[in-house]
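Agenda item 2: CU-O-CU linkage complex prediction
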Amino acid sequence: MQINNEKGSNPVDFTINSMISFTFIFTQSKQGSLTMGSTVNSPSTPIIIPSSPLQTSFIPKTSQLSIFKKKKPFNFASKKLVSCKASDRNQNNADSSSLNRFDRRDILLGLGGLYGATNLVSDPFASAAPIAAPDLSLCENSTVTSSSSGTSISVPCCPPKATNIIDFKPPRFSKIRLRPAAHLVDANYLEKFTKAMELMKALPDDDPRSFKQQANVHCAYCNGAYDHVGFPDQQLQIHFSWLFFPFHRFYLYFYERILGKLIGDPNFAMPFWNWDSPPGMVIPDIYVDPTSPLYDEKRNVDHQPPKMLDLDYVGTEELLSKRDQIKSNLSVMYRQIVTYKTPSLFHGAAYRAGDNPSPGMGSVENNPHTAVHRWVGDKREPFSEDMGNFYSAGRDPLFYAHHCNVDRLWNIWKSLPGKKRTDFTDTDWLDSSFLFYDENANLVRVKVRDCLNSRTLGYDYQKVNIPWLKNKPTPRRPGRGSGSGSAMAAETNTKTVIRNAFPIVLDKLVRIEVPRTKKSRTKVEKENEEEVLVLQNIRLDRDVAVKFDVYINDEDDETPTEPEDSEFAGSFTNIPHSHHNPGVKLDTNLTLPLSDLLEDLDIEGDDNIVVTLVPKEGKGLVSIGNIKIDFVRD
Ligand code: C2O
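Presented output:
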């Protein structure tokens, strides 16, 4: 038995239990397809459903992992939204000078009717073109840069070249490999895992299965080593788009198969870092023993256990009590998973062959995925190695536990109620492909369509408590009540309104009034179309760490807005990485769901919302091309 059942069967967190009351309890075996056929004893841990009437619908769906509804493909990243014209690059200087004329901390920008909301619909001109697996023979070294220090290094991270490519077919597995929570594993498991990592590290560097080559897989797919096949000017980037979840799922799959092969145990399953639950909110013990192959010295020295992980990390230490940190982390989780209800909001924007890279991140990739990378990375290193930069992230064994948890959240998201919590049916997504070396050192071409159900790949996750399902954010000023939202929006109209101010450089707090075209929508309308806030053409250097927050109708500057406040709509984040054209900025979009937030703040009837943008890390390094409200139908 690999999993310590004694600990594993009782992962309920007391800190949280003491704060909340519950009315619904049912066992995890009700998660239908998620546990069906499991060959490992699932402890009957209760999933606890909160008593709030707003959340009583949170009964995991019985079987959704393999259901696909026919619907019109939604092309969020239509070419209209993603332009990367060379002429745009010079606009940043102009932006900052126009902004500097106003010597105020808060600037209220009015968009008036200039940027009326339009529906995002399928782009009829979208080319039907899935991203093809890269041509390894054209792989180039990556150039890793740091604009802040002006340093740059060339990193060879191309894989060994093989000419024979096998098309992947999921093998038949006699048993489901159950990935355990890293903080719950027993000595027997740890011994196996340690042995497997030792053997991987002992493989010769040119073996595609070696620790070094496996780390390079991430470097190559994320730092411009490959071009799109047939588009030599377009570098492939598997972050900032709908490729994020499937790419990493396959990456972990082959990593796990290699580890299992090395120890002769085809049922070996990697651990996940359960950072979404209080007992997992520190670096798991098994990774911090300096004599272990799971250890990496390039980690932030101040973040060793028992230091609590901060899922809203901005590069500096926030001195929150343990209890407040847990609350903040669980609120981040709730917002990033529960309030994102459509495939494009969750997975990220469409990204097709020939498209500019990085059209827009999905919820989890943006946050907390980035926060965990940045929190672990060593700030003393020139490029925040290892976890703090894409080129080096795969060199830290903790990376794989981190990404197992990200991958686990994909399964959880699809199991939550909501008819649109499904994967895309767009064949450009389903047929996107990547190359990996498998456990036998064969080069394999995989397609996204083969990874949608983790059980098809032979694995699932140990069931543990999901405490954040009950951490719905609440309005900062309770009792704002019916109608007061409108009053507030009206008040802001009396402030100076600057028109045509976009693009803006985010070097200080900025307020923008954004008009809404549809108000007080019915439940059905809201189910059919999610109202979203879209920040378009967010531009920054790829190699800088950035985080800015987005608040709605929040004008209290005295006390900071926190993730547990309903007004907190989300954040934009960047993990430093590099492409071959350092002068060309990352140009991306951020789409934040608003429906729940508007409801919670009781401002669904308002004509406008006031959007506050607050730079938290990388002040002045980001510009924003436009902000508008839109409606997502996918
Ligand atoms: Cu590919 Cu967490 O990054």
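Discussion summary: Residues 218, 222, 239, 248, 369, 373, 393, 403 surround CU-O-CU linkage (CB under 6 Å).
Owner for follow-up: CH.
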